[in-house]
Specification:
143 residues; alpha+beta
Length: 143
């Protein structure tokens, strides 16, 4: 049992390219926050190149902790896409632009601001943005 999801691009989904598997925190509220965090850090996106995939995986692994079983990276055809939880998020840049294998209700348990702070506190200390900076970005986005 988990809260599973796969994150990939449309091109990778259709052509069996790279995707990232989450065993936990695969709900829309969490995935949106992971992507937003990467955007706020000004990381190149997975749509651009492999460095984007690496940064996304790094942020996810830092958040999930060290059990080694919560995040996977592989070709999409080897990942649990039709997972009965959250399916596949299709991204372009750091935005969710599509969804596959999801028919249930969306998870809306975590606020974006609280999730961004939670993600930030799990990153290496010298790479953290800090709660005040996150709140500034959130406030600027809503204005």
């Amino acid at each position: 049992m988990g809260n599973r999801a796969v994150i990939t691009t449309r091109e990778n989904f259709e052509n069996h390219g790279v995707g990232v598997y989450l065993h936990w925190n695969g709900g829309m509220d969490s995935v949106r926050a992971f992507l937003k965090y990467c955007e706020l850090r000004n990381f190149r996106s997975p749509s651009e190149d492999s460095y984007g995939w690496a940064r996304l995986a790094q942020v996810l692994c830092n958040f999930m902790g060290g059990d080694g079983l919560s995040v996977g990276v592989d070709v999409v055809s080897n990942l649990d896409c039709d997972n009965y939880d959250n399916g596949v998020y299709i991204i372009d840049g750091w935005d969710i632009v599509g969804r596959e294998y999801h028919t249930g209700a969306e998870q809306d348990e975590y606020g974006l601001d609280e999730m961004l702070v939670a993600i930030d506190t799990t990153q290496p200390e010298n790479q953290q943005m800090g709660k005040d900076n996150i709140n500034k970005y959130i406030q600027a986005d809503t204005e």
